[in-house]
Structure to design on (527 residues):
């Protein structure tokens, strides 16, 4: 028989790094069965309870398989097993052949996976390069300060998330989430991502996982074309007939799935007036860096946590002011033990992002502090993109060029002055003192200042230990392309939009799930 058990809290200080594989004796004790009666178990949920720091505890829920004849009597912590609902990709028949998928980020990859499983032989068009060549291009950028405009931290296989920490936290709850996580595990990810409350892949491991997913799609009949930037959709008589590439080549298809990502601004601009879309609020902000030991002490009550915990993360939120004049702000893409990177396509613009390897063993923690720019600030979608371009250019100028980042201590940002910066940072191109509070639009600065004061109350020292670095401008899209909620059809027949660039997702997992559902809909609409 199978039962579900909520185990009692396990002190993190007494748990080793392999605790996930050592739960059988505790399961037997809680279920009040013999140890040999626990034949197997699967962790359903693992989380960290730090409410009584430094007495931090690990919490587990498990499904345990018991030997025939075992009679568990564990009380309220032992519950009947209920199978979870499973997501299954489209299983119908289809005559669709060679659909085009624009973009090889999470949305595009998982859309291509579903299409390949249906036997459609999708063609994935990616302006950047595969992860191996992309890695070399990034290494060259770090050495020269000159990014390749088509292969960088933003463009290439896996999308911007490939070298952006690989965090898999999402607020959506549906069976397709587990399908995405299990697919990553099948492609080489650690199985813990399927049950840990804040799953993480790591920027050092994610490229290999993405490559394995690509090989799976190829084995199923899919094709990948690198260095293949789509410059135009071929729209005739209200239907999309294919695409035109930057080199002039045209590819025809009855179905085109656009998963271009929100950094493909020129491509998105080319669609205004041709495909119906609407403006939406979007987020901008500044990345903040702290010593990881400070975050560990604030979150866990210890500067060096045990192996069972690892580097501490945080998530903070500041609500809008009571009079509504100042918007709220929140942390985003928090990277424990991580590194700040330059998410740019050319050296004349600057935007920052964060990453961390699987071990999360760096000296610094970083996160974006973001606030929302309302859609009503702009008369047209192009105006929002112009705003982002101007902001990135101003940040690059303030840094002095060469991808050096303008920076300001959090205390100086609050007080509106230029001061001295600490001598060490994770940002490889270095920092230049600057008035980020003046570079950012006044509403953004007001929101972040108010938030910093609030965060310092939650984590005393957040202000004095923090350094504001660069600007975060690649968080979300100002545009959402219209699509039917049921059929996922856009205003153009045969054209489907999904992922972050289309305005329907906000992270690796939500983008992947959106890609799954979009491909399912396209298959159902084109039998």
């Amino acid at each position: 028989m199978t039962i579900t058990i909520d185990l009692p809290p396990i002190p993190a200080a007494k748990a080793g790094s392999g605790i996930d594989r050592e739960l059988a004796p505790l399961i037997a004790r809680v279920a009040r069965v013999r140890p040999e009666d626990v034949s197997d178990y699967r962790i359903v949920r693992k989380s960290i309870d730090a409410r009584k720091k430094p007495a931090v505890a690990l919490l587990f829920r498990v499904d345990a398989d018991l030997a025939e004849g075992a009679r568990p009597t564990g009380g309220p912590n032992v519950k009947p097993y209920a199978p979870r609902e499973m997501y299954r990709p489209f299983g119908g028949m289809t005559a669709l052949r060679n659909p085009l998928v624009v973009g090889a980020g999470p949305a595009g990859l998982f859309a291509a996976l579903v299409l390949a499983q249906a036997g459609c032989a999708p063609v994935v068009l990616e302006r950047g390069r595969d992860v191996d060549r992309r890695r070399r291009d990034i290494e060259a950028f770090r050495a020269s300060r000159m990014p390749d405009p088509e292969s960088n931290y933003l463009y290439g296989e896996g999308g911007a998330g490939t070298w952006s920490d690989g965090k898999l936290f999402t607020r959506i709850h549906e069976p397709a989430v587990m399908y995405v996580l299990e697919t990553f595990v099948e492609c080489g990810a650690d199985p813990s991502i399927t049950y840990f409350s804040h799953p993480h892949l790591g920027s050092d491991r994610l490229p290999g996982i993405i490559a394995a997913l690509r090989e799976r799609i190829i084995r199923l009949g899919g094709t990948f074309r690198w260095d293949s930037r789509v410059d135009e959709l071929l729209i005739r008589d209200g239907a999309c007939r294919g695409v035109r590439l930057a080199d002039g080549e045209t590819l025809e298809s009855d179905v085109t799935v656009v998963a271009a990502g929100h950094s493909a601004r020129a491509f998105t601009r080319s669609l205004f007036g041709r495909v119906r879309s609407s403006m939406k609020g979007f987020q901008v902000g500044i990345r903040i860096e702290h010593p990881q030991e400070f975050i560990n002490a604030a979150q866990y009550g210890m500067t060096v946590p045990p192996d069972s915990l690892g580097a501490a993360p945080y998530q903070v939120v500041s609500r809008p002011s009571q009079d509504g004049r100042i918007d709220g702000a929140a942390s985003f893409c928090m990277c424990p033990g991580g590194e700040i990177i330059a998410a740019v396509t050319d050296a004349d613009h600057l935007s920052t992002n964060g990453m961390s390897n699987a071990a999360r063993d760096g000296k610094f923690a970083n996160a974006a502090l973001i606030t929302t720019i309302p859609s009503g600030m702009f008369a047209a979608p192009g105006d929002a993109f112009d705003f982002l371009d101007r902001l990135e250019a101003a940040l690059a100028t303030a840094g002095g060029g060469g991808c050096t980042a303008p920076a300001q201590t959090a205390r100086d940002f609050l007080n509106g002055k230029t001061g001295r910066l600490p001598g060490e940072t994770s940002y490889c191109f270095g920092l230049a003192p600057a008035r980020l509070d003046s570079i950012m639009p006044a509403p953004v600065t007001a929101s972040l200042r108010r938030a910093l004061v609030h965060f310092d109350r939650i984590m005393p020292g957040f202000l004095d230990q923090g350094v504001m670095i660069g600007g975060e401008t690649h968080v979300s899209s100002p545009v959402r392309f219209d699509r039917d909620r049921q059929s996922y059809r856009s205003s153009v027949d045969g054209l489907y939009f999904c992922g972050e660039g289309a305005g329907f997702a906000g992270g690796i997992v939500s983008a992947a799930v959106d890609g799954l559902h979009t491909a399912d809909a396209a298959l159902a609409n084109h039998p």
